[in-house]
Amino acid sequence: MRQADADDDNAQPLSHYVGASLDRYFESLNGSAPPTDLYRMVLEQVERPLLERVLEYNRGNQSKAATMLGINRGTLRKKLRSYNLD
């Protein structure tokens, strides 16, 4: 059994995990200068695994993945190219 499956009974909303990750990130800065493009950095860190997992879930079917994501297939393809996932 995967650890994630074992933890499902204690699952929190995704925002909880994102917030906890950001807290750890800020703590790890340890007084150094914060990044200047945090918004872009966070989106890229979340978007790539999101696209990978949704495509995997849909067995590579881009039309189904785009529908699941709520974006059109052209937008999905553009995003896949930007992450070299095509």
Which architecture of the domain at 37-86 does the CATH hierarchy give at level 2? Orthogonal Bundle
Count the beta strands: 0
> What spatial form do the alpha-carbon principal axes imply?
flat
**Name of the CATH homologous superfamily of the domain at 37-86:** Homeodomain-like
What is the gyration radius calculated from CA atoms?
16 Å
Identify low-pLDDT runs. none
Instruction: Supply the CATH class of the domain at 37-86.
Output: Mainly Alpha
- How many H/I helical runs? 5
Structural class: mainly alpha
Q: Which range best describes the helical content: under 10%, 10-25%, 25-40%, 40-55%, 55-70% or over 70%?
A: 55-70%
CATH topology of the domain at 37-86: Arc Repressor Mutant, subunit A
Strand and helix order: HHHHH
Average the pLDDT over all residues and give the rounded result: 90
Give the N-terminus to C-terminus distance in angstroms.
31 Å
Protein name: Putative Fis-like DNA-binding protein
Domain DNA binding HTH: 43-83
InterPro entries: Fis_DNA-bd (IPR005412), Homeodomain-like_sf (IPR009057), HTH_Fis (IPR002197), Trans_regulatory_Fis (IPR050207)
GO molecular function, one term: sequence-specific DNA binding
